[in-house]
Amino acid sequence: MSHKHALLSASSSHRWLECPPSARLSESYEDKGSEYAQQGTDAHSLCQYKLEKALGIKTKDPTGNLTYYDAEMEQCAEDYAGYVLELLEAVRQICKDPIVLIEQKLDFSRFVENGFGTGDCVIIADGTLYVIDYKHGQGVLVSAMENTQMQCYAIGALELFDGIYDINAVCMTIYQPRKENVSMFTMSKDDLYSWAENILAPTAKLAYAGEGEYKAGEHCQFCQAKAVCRKRAEYNLELARYDFEMPATLETDEIAAILPKVDELISWVNDIKEYALQQALSGTDYHGFKVVEGRSNRKYTDESAVADAVTAAGFDPYEQKLLGITAMVSELGKKKFDEILGNFTYKPQGKPTLVPESDKRPAINNSNAALAAEDFSEN
Known about the structure:
By secondary structure, the chain is an alpha+beta fold. The chain folds into three domains: 13-209, Lambda Exonuclease, Chain A; 227-281, no CATH class; 322-347, no CATH class. It has twelve helices and five strands. It has a five-stranded mixed beta sheet. Helix 5 (148-161) crosses helix 6. The longest helix has 30 residues, at 252-281. The two termini are 45 Å apart.
């Protein structure tokens, strides 16, 4: 699997389409990656293997080389392969000989300088082209609705196959099993090309040149320059005009104006703290601050020796704990789990959360919300 990233990659398109100069600004800052990114890479490798194996393609099991492989990742990859096979079967009802491509490089450089990405799975059939993207993350729910990464992939796929197959539309799917999310969005070929020509291409031209207007928002989350960006600081410091020491003086409409920015404000402050810590560790002096050793808890030097010593003293050093659902499914197998424990599982009510009206989840009425909040406060 290729890990090369273009300056204007499909995966970062949500950011540079909103804030064109951020693409060049981010070049000055090192992308250190994260364990979440590596976990996602591992999951994609496993998904590729499971799907190729299911399709009868000669492939190599990558499990032994995966850093973050576990039972949950195994199940997610199995489910992903199963989903693609179900979709493929449905497509075959319409087109006898669809083509399936796995980890396909998709080039949309006609509209974006050096623009390319990798499609996890592309199915080409008469009438409709299908692009499926696997997301392993469970932090943020990803929607396929007007998802610019998926639209870039769709353009890249059209560039390859539009002349070979009679394609009228592209169906884009986000498969995100750890969020129980399968999101689909279909655009006509004409609408996609119109978006590419009128929005994607001109904005990408600005971004590649490092031009355009800076704009702060939730798209800042994965920007390498997010901690030092002045536009983002100005955006968040607007909240300083509210008197947080006297929240009772805030009117309802003032609170409503603050709410959309709260999460971004918290994220920005944490980014500033982390950036300042790393700079301080490298020698930067921030007046009035110093680096100290944080609190830590005691740890065993040798767990086996501890167990032997406690056992010899006549005590049991181990606690008995019921396997969690994911581990239990791995132990029994999904079918056996459903047979034996299907009647012993349930999904509890989620904690009440205040979200924007654009969120797809149905609102709960005030009386139910109050009861739910009371339940959680008692736990």
